[in-house]
Amino acid sequence: MMSEGSSFMKGMVLGGIFCLVMSFFENFNSGTHSEVHEHLHHHLKPLSKDELEKLSESQMSDLPLQVRVYCLIMVTPKLLVHWATANDTWSKHCDKSVFYTSESSKALEAVDLQEQDEWARLRKAIKHAYENAGDLRWFFVARPTTFAIIENLKYLVLDKDPSQPFYIGHTEKSGELDYVEYDSGIVLSYEAMRRLIEMFKDEDRCPERGHALWKTSEEKQLATCLKYSGVFAENGEDAQGKGLFNKKSVSSLISDSMGQNPADVVEACCSDMAITFAGMSPSQMQVLMYGVYRLRPYGHDFHDSLTFLPPKDSDND
Amino acid sequence: MRSFKRHILFLSGIVVSVLLSKTCLLVLRTLTPSFAMTDSYTSTVRHGVKNRTAALDLSQKVRVLCWVMTQPQHLKSRTQHIRATWGRRCNIVLYMSSEASDFPTVGLNVSEGRNQLYWKTIRAFQHIHMHHLDDADWFLKADDDTFVVLENLRYGLSKHNTEEPLYFGRRFKPFVAQGYMSGGAGYVLSKEALRRFVKGFADGLCSHDTNIEDIGLGKCMETMKVQLGDSRDVLGRQTFHPYPPHYYLTRQLPRPRPWYLLYEHYHPVEGPGCCSDLAISFHYIDAVQMHTLEYYTYHLHPYGYKYRFNPDERSDNRNNN
Nearest-CA residue of chain B relative to A308? Predict the structure, then answer.
């Protein structure tokens, strides 16, 4: 009787120790994981007015020259009207804007990547942009159904060093993965681009054509490749925490605000320094162009510390 | 010798007539009061100084009374959005309806309906003349689906004398010999024009001879010798608009005038050149668009952007590329 009991006890003790050791080991592992995940900035905001005012005269005049943006606009002939609208409106405010297409169109100029797969096309465009960047250090990736206010993008990254990895936009979560939504535009620094292109060589972690039965969207594939190279998604927002990158149209956001904040529709809706809107029709985009760059009340001045000049040969801004 | 003299006389005749007609045209052009005039009547605008105090100065020097043509059924769906946006920028705002209410609305002794619109206009102006003549300098009429930028209206009016019989808006050609201003786009009367309108009805010179309020008012203005002003900016771009922005701004291939531009007195421009940066009004604006335009005009801003159009810096206009 006694030996049966003690073996039982020995078994229990051994089992107990085993469990303890296992759980201790697991904790140790997840501890290091969370350290890797933890990064300093999840929410990225622009310089404050005070910080801007502290800059010297020479720093002030240098800044607009240092923050220069290369726009990659991913088009297809199906989106011809939006393509033409992006070409005629906001893309003129990029320091360099290049349209990358799946197949060429006689109507509009673009770099023909001759690639139907969206992820493969994005990879090619990114490589092309990096190789043709010249001295531009910030990259903005968008579809022509997005409208971007480049001056506000520049303001957001004004004090950020492009030789550091930055991957900014409207962030969403998919399981463990934080990714930037494609529809509201993706901002990448020069360093992020460099690391990404390095990672493109890794066919296991960042394959060009997935082997899975289902296809992951390009925005998630991009986030995964960047994550493996130590670059994490950050949400672009203003000083009040309002998102600057929007995947909805202005009227959609206003309409939502009318339902949720009827007493303060415009205040609650959208940032004064908004960078992107999406899902707008071509004519709505032309109205937005007028609304951003022209329509204003006489006598109101924003007292901005920097100046960005209007682009040459443009009649709608 | 005689044929030589004849030739000389003939040639000098041509020269004189050319000079005369050019002078006539020049005189005629300066005779039309316009928003593009560069001499400021009230000289509140100082060169190079652009901040909110310029806008505040103007609101004290150029007082505008706005009256909005509305009805009880529209207060919730339309008028409240005006009250939340541009209505509060008027020096005085009156919401005119068939019934008085706590909105607040002024009750006119008129019933509702499209055929009552001119009666409403007549009664509204009579009410304003009786109660508010000295409270403002200019008197704006707008619909409950019109969006107005008051600062730009004041800027345009600042160059004019309210004691003169003047009226501004979007000028239409037909129905009235001298033309008339579109009702939907909003129109504004000087103090003297308001006096003459009311006097016209009091003396029987004007009467309710149509249901179409903008034509009716336009006819009375003509009878009472009130002059139509030119509200276009220094680049000839329109400020009052009877339709929403996308009707005008969308680029078009050269084409015959679409139906909504058929009444235009001034030659219309389609595409970006249609509309002034300092636009004053748009019409057929629903609730969502009202707040959207408010956001575009007063909030959404491209950081540091140097605007191309700077009407106070005259040299800029020539360098516009």
Answer: B305
- Report pLDDT digits (tens) over A29-42: 444 444 344 444 58
Q: Cβ(A102)–Cβ(A116) under 8 Å?
A: yes
d(CA A30, CA A246): 34
pLDDT over 50 at A253, yes or no: yes
> H-type helices in B158-239, by residue range?
191-202, 213-223
**What ipTM score was computed for the predicted complex, to two decimals?**
0.86
- Burial label for A6, CB within 10 Å (0-12, 13-18, 19+), is exposed
d(CA A65, nearest CA chain B) in Å: 13
Sort out which chain B residues have CB atoms less than 8 A from A152's CB and list them. 302-303
For helices A282-293 and A250-260, angle between their N-to-C axes, nearest 10 degrees = 80
Q: Are strands A186-189 and A138-142 parallel, antiparallel or unpaired?
A: antiparallel
Look up residue B73 and give its DSSP letter.
G
Q: Is the pLDDT of residue A15 over 50?
A: yes
Cα–Cα distances in Å, from A44 out to A173, A273, B25? Answer: 16, 14, 61
Pairing of strands B138-143, B187-190: antiparallel
pLDDT for B214 beyond 80? yes
The answer to whether A317 faces chain B, any CB pair under 8 Å, is yes
Q: Percent of chain B scored above 70 by pLDDT? A: 89
